Amino acid sequence: MADEDFELDIDDLKRRMDGAMTSLRQEFATLRTGRASATMVEPIMVEAYGTQTPINQVGTVNVPEPRMVTINIWDKSLVGKAEKAIRESGLGINPVIDGTIIRLPIPELNEERRRELTKVAAQYAEHARVAIRNVRRDGMDQLKKAKANGMPEDDHKIWSQEVQDLTDQAIANVDKALEHKQEEIMQV
Hints:
The chain is an alpha+beta fold. The protein has 2 domains: 97 residues, Ribosome-recycling factor (Topoisomerase I, Chain A, domain 4, Orthogonal Bundle), CATH 1.10.132.20; 68 residues, Gyrase A, domain 2 (2-Layer Sandwich). Strands 3-4-6-5 form a 4-stranded antiparallel sheet, with helices on one face. The chain has a two-stranded antiparallel ribbon with strand order 1-2. Helix 3 packs antiparallel against helix 4. This is Ribosome-recycling factor. It holds the Pfam family RRF. One of its GO terms (molecular function) is ribosomal large subunit binding. It is found in: Cytoplasm.
């Protein structure tokens, strides 16, 4: 019995590969590049009103200059708790308090730390490539099953090439993002 109506869900494979790329971008955003970024403080949680609250929900986060993040805390009673949360966050930044504004001066990265960060970025990129290859493998497994159920050889080759093209494009996007992030990290 030939499976003439086989339809590989390319959109699903593409969505899953795009998900790996989105995850990579989020991981890259957490890497400190020596430049200020509002995303640096997103993971910080402040003890506010008896519950752990993201810092961007107790104040306004701004980046007024390339090496400075400011957080304007809305409730004056939370300034000390926000400062404590920043100090304990592991960012390696000493907050400076000015009324209800907390200033976070971003120190210059040394050469050794920059090289370490490029290695971390490369590891993140490799995890994304592995995720993309796993999606490719799932697609190829579906094609093998369809071929075993009577899919014509020509159709199998066409679908296989489409999955491979999608994989190559996704991995090229990861490589491009990695190259851009490494340039950003090494920029003095």
